[in-house]
Specification:
about 200 residues; 8 helices; 5 strands
Length: about 200
């Protein structure tokens, strides 16, 4: 069984690849939607996992391009937000958990029921990524670069839970729910509170 995993988060892609290959599947990683389209048209994949927010070409545009070109195999959307775009065969809500993926994909009869743990080395690498992200968020908040700040929060919301950092994911989700309604002054205060909460979480 060959899977194409289109995701711009390298650590999340590495985790998925490790889990899927441990279950006996072949996985090819595409770092953006443009690469995913090229790979899908060049090789025979049984399933495509398509992240929605990616650089170069987003997941919806990549899916639409493939469908227009006659690609008829299953394409599965992955997002921290709800996606109702016509053309996807299934929607997986981030953060991804292997058990969740197995349950959702039961209809395709492709993923065996295996319980897999996140490897210590990969979890440690993601912990370092979280710490670096919090450092970046602090600098972005200090300079009021809210678009970049929001993009990193979105990434944490979508991936942290997959590596066992559920509290970080929940805090990011809570922040995102009201972020667009806040004034710049309110964003400054809310960002500081969010960073304090994250730093209080057990990351290591």
């Amino acid at each position: 069984m060959n899977l194409l995993f289109a995701e711009d988060d390298a650590l999340l892609a590495q985790l998925f690849q490790l889990q899927a290959e441990s279950a006996g599947y072949q996985v090819v990683w595409a770092e953006n939607g443009d690469v995913a389209v090229q790979q899908a048209l060049s090789y025979q994949f049984d399933l495509i996992f398509m992240d929605i927010q990616m650089p170069v070409l987003d997941g919806i545009s990549a899916m639409q391009m493939l469908r227009q070109l006659g690609y008829d195999r299953p394409i599965i959307a992955m997002s921290a937000e709800n996606v109702a775009e016509e053309g996807f065969d299934l929607m997986l809500k981030k953060p991804l958990h292997w058990e969740q993926v197995q349950d959702k994909l039961a209809q395709f009869d492709v993923i065996p029921q295996l319980t897999l743990q996140v490897p210590h080395e990969l979890r440690s690498a993601y912990a370092a990524h979280v710490e670096e992200s919090l450092h970046q968020l602090q600098m972005l908040a200090d300079s009021a670069k809210w678009a970049d700040f929001s993009a990193i929060v979105h990434q944490l919301k979508g991936s942290a839970g997959s590596f066992g950092f559920e509290e970080i994911s929940k805090l990011a989700d809570k922040l995102q729910q009201t972020w667009a309604t806040l004034s710049d002054e309110q964003k400054q205060a809310r960002a500081s509170y969010f960073l304090e909460q994250c730093k209080a979480c057990k990351i290591k």
